[in-house]
Amino acid sequence: DFKPLVFSGVQPTGNLHLGNYLGAIRKFVALQENNDCIYCVVDLHAITAQLVHEDMPGQIRAIAAAFIASGIDPEKHIVFNQSAVPQHAELAWIFNCVARIGWMNRMTQFKDKAGKDRENASLGLFAYPSLMAADILVYRATHVPVGDDQKQHLELARDIAQKFNNDFMEHIRRTDYGVDTMVGEEHVHAYFPAVEPLIDGPAPRVMSLRDGTKKMSKSDASDLSRINLMDDAEMIAKKIRKAKTDPDALPSEVEGLKGRPEADNLVGIYAALADKTKEEVLQEFGGQQFSVFKPALIDLSVAVLAPITGEMRRLMDDTSHIDGILRKGGERARVRAEKTMKQVREIIGF
Ligand code: ADP
Ligand code: NA
């Protein structure tokens, strides 16, 4: 079977927020204990929605700094920047020829990000999921920790892998690069694995603090809607105090959070930060008012985030150190990606 390998990426597009941390980065840290992991700053993705960025080098360093400040070990695992490994773009082109336009047309994130003027969105934004599939599969990675918003893109990555495996089945058999594996109940001989999304946990989709029906996002016009990883303790406290809630006390069972999106969101955030389940949080706070719960959430948020923010600032001040980590990570990633691409070119017949 395929060797387990974890891959994920974060775009260098400004304001990293609590949703990115709980939906992605905190899970990256937990997974590194028992897995081989590759964590990528995805700068090629960052130019899909907006071509020109004010300070791309600074944004790239900020994501790498967030990974490391959160506890990722760049010696044991690989931390690098996507464009340093051109094999991602090469495989993405091949996947553009594997994927069907109809598959891409179903992607809801494209519809959200392109907005009304779809004809004027970049071709790159449309093809984004194909590059994302290449990011993962150029390492033949098997597990991808992401937030809930990425679920559809990972299903597409599985479809691309499966179509490549089927279309080139005879070619794959002629090499000894394929792997015998199970897909569902079926035994197959495959070159690319069926990637598993890792979306679980109490906060797979962190919602806006101002509107429990919208996800917390870098692009929300209201800064009060999100907790940024660079916010200081005072700002975190202010945003949680102002977070929208309802007038009722917290329920003692998870069932009681139904129809209360803001309460559900804050309990989920507390649980994720405390490494607890929502059940456990409600055992502690059920029957309490938000006037009791919010101060506890502020204390916990500051206790978890302040050390990360401090370490991020320190790392970002030492640009040559962080650039060195990215350079070494890029070299290691390139060796692994080229090993795959050599085989892929041979399978295709290039
Ligand atoms: P963004 O979605 O903020 O523009 P990225 O696309 O770079 O940023 O996402 C980085 C990771 O953060 C992805 O795994 C994504 O699923 C996760 N993520 C983003 N927003 C949220 C959120 N509100 N809740 C949970 N995870 C999120
Ligand atoms: Na996203």
From TrEMBL:
Positions occupied by motif 'KMSKS' region: 215-219
Principal location: cytoplasm
Binding site for L-tryptophan: D135
Transmembrane segments: none
An annotated Gene Ontology molecular function: ATP binding
Cited SUPFAM superfamilies: Nucleotidylyl transferase
GO biological process: tryptophanyl-tRNA aminoacylation
Protein's cellular compartments: Cytoplasm
Enzyme class, broadest EC rank: ligase
Assembly behavior: Homodimer.
Name this polypeptide is given: Tryptophan--tRNA ligase
Organism from which the protein derives: Pararhizobium antarcticum
